[in-house]
Write a structure and sequence with these properties.
Blueprint: H1 2-12, H2 29-39, E1 44-45, H3 48-53, E2 68-70, H4 75-87, E3 92-95, E4 112-115, E5 122-126, E6 131-134, H5 140-146, E7 152-153, H6 164-170, H7 177-180, H8 183-186, E8 187-193, E9 199-201, H9 218-222, E10 231-238, E11 240-241, E12 245-252, H10 256-268, E13 273-279, H11 281-290, E14 300-307, H12 309-325, E15 329-334, H13 337-348, H14 350-355, E16 362-369, H15 375-389, E17 392-397, E18 403-410, H16 415-434, H17 450-472, H18 486-489, H19 491-498
Parallel strand pairs: 2-4, 3-4
Antiparallel strand pairs: 1-2, 5-6, 6-10, 7-11, 8-9, 8-10, 12-14, 12-15, 13-14, 13-17, 16-18, 17-18
Helix pairs in contact: 1-16, 2-4, 10-12, 10-15, 15-16
């Protein structure tokens, strides 16, 4: 039991010792000066506050901050920075908006954090081809503001106003995935600076075709790679026509089983729903308080439909019939933009609403994804597990594609409570795997799910991943410690290379 508690404490709260194994000496003065030569002195910082800010994301994982933070202004500078760091054995950690949830930006070996947010241009819009090229500092909201008068939009919506290249790096998803797909479905090409500074266009320079049978799918390799293979310096994205009309709705159900059975039935009936979100009774209560809503405190669905006015009428009627068959009540339709915005704002602010249930505690969010047919089973069981654990938490998610989240609140100073949280999260991940699902639908592997990744894909797939990693990053310096257990397995090699930190 003591070993489990220790593992839980280190896994979730690394400031208690997680990073002690691989720490390195600070960067030499000469190396910092070399960084300044590339990007200019104002764009390099070794200040403690700045480094600390860049040493964590929105997760509970905390770690040693990077030794320096740099802000390149263009791809040429990124290439020179990567070549300099790689040549001197200095770890490289890409950084976007810092909205990740699995510790993907933690500097477990120190090194240089490359903040890409100053590269924020929309480089090329091809409306006739439904594509756009963006730099890594462009966020999804900024892109959609730019597209407002074009009749197009980019629908992948993880909630946070994340950077689009960061969303590509983490394989992000969100509320619209049931109709429009995830980042894996909406990235056509990537410009990537490899660890040694070489520039790669994954589908060929300037190409933005919709499909190809030419060679390996390098674009797919880098989407979801979590910064472990290179730095994404531009992304060519698939755009979609803006819907002619939009209607949203909420409805409450007597049980979780009824709500999820309704979801499965709606999908099986081929109702082209754009969003279908599940919120349990705890989330609904929290959202009522936080967002000043007056919804029933019961398992609920938030739905949205896109299309022509005539098509929407048919979709709404069919969806309501199915939901009522499963015991739904308290239907509320939101047809005006202001009403819909208020509804989805409440959904996107669910994290803050749940955090307010236990002030002073830390929030931990985990996600899994299972085949749609197994969704009712796992959601009902997860609710029972959550109640049995004694933890304060809630369940919500993008049930239209089998993906859901648990948001849990914990006192980081209570080792016993931390242990219960770690046990719950591990059990949830393995339950999803047992149902032929995945340990993460959209958060990524990061620091927290490396063991589950190995159990999910198996030994052969893990070996192939390690070989790919070794081919692109033989020194193990690209965002070490994330995704694969590569950096942990190669710790001695990394520590030997780190000796050159002090030599420049």
């Amino acid at each position: 039991m003591a070993r489990r508690l220790l593992a839980a404490t280190w896994g979730l709260f690394p400031w208690r010792g997680y990073c002690s194994r691989g720490t390195q000496d600070k960067l030499s003065v000469g190396f910092v000066e070399a960084l300044k030569v590339i990007v200019g002195s104002p764009h390099v910082s070794t200040a403690a506050a700045v480094r600390e800010q860049h040493g964590h994301d929105e997760s509970m994982h905390r770690c040693r901050p990077p030794d320096a933070v740099v802000w390149p202004q263009n791809v040429e500078q990124v290439s020179r920075l990567a070549a300099l760091c790689y040549g001197q054995g200095v770890p490289i950690i890409p950084f976007g908006t810092g909205t990740g949830l699995e510790g993907g930006v933690c500097a477990v070996q120190g090194g240089v954090c490359i903040n890409l947010t100053h590269m924020d241009r929309i480089l090329e819009l091809n409306p006739e081809d439904f594509s756009v090229v963006v730099e890594p500092g462009v966020t999804r909201k900024a892109l959609n503001r730019h597209l407002r008068d074009s009749g197009l939009w980019f629908p992948v919506d993880p909630g946070a106003d994340a950077s689009l290249c960061g969303m590509a790096a983490t394989g992000a998803s969100g509320t619209n995935a049931v109709r429009y797909g995830t980042m894996r479905d909406n990235v056509l090409n990537l410009e990537v600076v490899l660890p040694d500074g070489r520039l790669l266009h994954t589908a060929g320079c300037g190409r933005h075709f919709r499909k190809s049978a030419a060679g390996y799918n390098l674009t797919g390799l880098f989407v979801g790679s979590e910064g472990t293979l290179g730095l994404i310096t531009s992304a060519t994205l698939r755009l979609h026509p803006a819907p002619e009309a939009t209607v949203a709705a909420t409805c409450a159900f007597p049980t979780i089983q009824a709500a999820v059975d309704s979801t499965v039935h709606i999908l099986q009936a081929a109702v082209p729903v754009a969003r279908i979100e599940f919120l349990d009774d705890v989330v609904m209560d929290a959202c009522n308080r936080h967002s000043k809503m007056d919804c029933p405190v019961a398992p609920s669905l938030f739905l949205e439909f896109h299309g022509s006015a005539q098509a929407l009428a048919e979709q709404l009627q069919r969806a309501e019939e199915i939901a009522q068959y499963h015991g739904a009540s308290h239907f509320s339709w939101a047809k005006e933009a202001e009403e819909r915005s208020r509804l989805w704002a409440a959904r996107h602010n669910a994290w803050y609403a749940i955090m307010a249930l236990r002030p002073g505690c830390k929030g931990y969010s985990t996600d899994v994804c299972v085949p749609i047919s197994r969704l009712p089973e796992i959601l009902v069981q997860t609710k029972e597990d959550l109640q049995a654990s004694g933890l304060t938490g809630a369940i919500l998610g993008h049930v239209g594609d089998g993906n859901f989240h648990c948001i849990l609140l914990v006192d980081p100073e209570d080792a016993e409570e931390v242990g219960r949280l770690e046990a719950f999260a591990e059990q949830l991940g393995r339950r999803a795997l047992a149902l032929h699902g995945t340990c993460t639908g959209e958060h990524g592997i990061g620091l927290g799910k490396r063991q589950l990744l190995q159990e999910e894909v198996g030994a052969v797939a893990m070996e192939i991943m390690r070989q790919l990693k070794a081919g692109l990053d033989p020194r193990g310096l690209m965002n070490p410690g994330k995704g694969l257990n590569w950096a942990l397995e190669q710790a001695e090699c990394v520590l030997q290379v780190a000796a050159t930190h002090r030599g420049m």
